[in-house]
Target: SDR family oxidoreductase
Amino acid sequence: MDYDIAGRWAVVCAASRGLGYGCAEALAAQGVNLVINARTPEALETAAEALRRSAPGVEVRTVPGDIGTGEVQGELLEACPQVDILVNNAGGPPAGDFRDWGSEAWSSALRQNMLTPVELIKATVDSMAERGFGRIVNITSSSVKAPIAALGLSNGARSGLTGFVAGIARQPRLASRNVTINNLLPGSFATRRLTDSLEAGSRDSGRDVEELAREARQEIPAGRFGTPEEFGAACAFLCSAQAGYVTGQNLLIDGGAYPGTF
Model:
């Protein structure tokens, strides 16, 4: 299906691998030019080359560095001729006991997973409205829908972003100008983060990684982990011309793991 976004420009954060890369790849397949970001320059360039090979007609620019800093945010926006699509993404804060988290841990979590997306939205959304097209997708977490006790930092920061988006997405001066803002809530996906989590669980419990993975898959009605490709496909649809009537929504993608009705 042609999403009618070929030739547009997208900024995709944390796009060297995993879900961010899946989103960049899906947008490139639709002919969208990309400015991608990640902390590690080598991994970012490898991702950019793979994207260029998969979509030869698409321009791919790279801006390495910590997207949580104002300097890198400025470089990222400057590298993009015009931001038609913004995909906010950042690695989640570490798990732990809330009793052990001081102000520094909270500040870091809020900066990466709430305040940075807010800053990038603020920097781009009005120009989108002036041009009459804009798509913003924030990659958050299924923990926004069903909090995970050990991920209190993520629960708090990402829920804050969710509440912020719920308010601004419905502003008539944005929604009536074909600017949409939505959130994607991933469950368990086959990414490096999941692998790291399983390996940490294995070290703590002394159990085999595959045994832990098998148990985790059994908790998911779909019987498997998601793939970055199918996550990227959902992102690309929300960025499409056809999705102009979808805004302020939280799309949970978890293979049916969340048991609630709403």
Q: What stands out?
A: Residues 74 and 120 are 9 Å apart (CA to CA). The radius of gyration is 18 Å.
